[in-house]
Design brief:
Layout lengths: L5 H11 L3 H13 L5 H19 L3 H15 L11 H17 L28
Helix pairs in contact: 1-2, 2-3, 3-4, 4-5
């Protein structure tokens, strides 16, 4: 597996520490310097962090909008991608947002980010090395 950029790994760490705004900042710096197919992927991760940030701050409309934007981008990539178990992340991300998604386009009452549903970005296992 190729070496992953330091800012990318820091962004993953910050996401997993639930420092979503800081994760967004770090990954946005990386995104600005990235060309090629991974640029859209990194943008999807940024949007996932922003979705989590909005959800945690009870901006449910913004959270739902960013959730859909993130998933639209991330689901275009194979799993694993850039070292991430992307399939597992997308399943966990959807589980986190399920109550908000179930509300459809209405503004749900009593829906909040639940600590036990916050997704973690897991690095894929490296057992496919020849």
């Amino acid at each position: 597996m190729e070496e992953l950029p330091e800012k990318y790994l820091l962004g993953i760490y910050l996401f997993n520490e639930e420092e979503f705004f800081e994760c967004h900042d770090v990954l946005e710096e990386l995104w600005a310097d990235t060309m090629g197919e991974s640029r859209l992927f990194i943008q999807g991760l940024i949007q996932a962090a922003v979705a989590m940030f909005h959800f945690g701050n009870e901006n449910l409309g913004g959270a739902r909008k960013m959730y859909h934007s993130a998933v639209e981008k991330l689901q275009q990539y194979p799993s694993p991608y850039m070292g991430i178990d992307l399939l597992r992340f997308l399943v966990d991300f959807e589980h986190c947002f399920q109550e908000l998604l179930d509300a459809g386009t209405t503004y749900p009452q009593g829906v909040e980010l639940r600590d036990d549903r916050v997704p973690i970005i897991r690095l894929a296992e490296d057992d496919d090395q020849a």
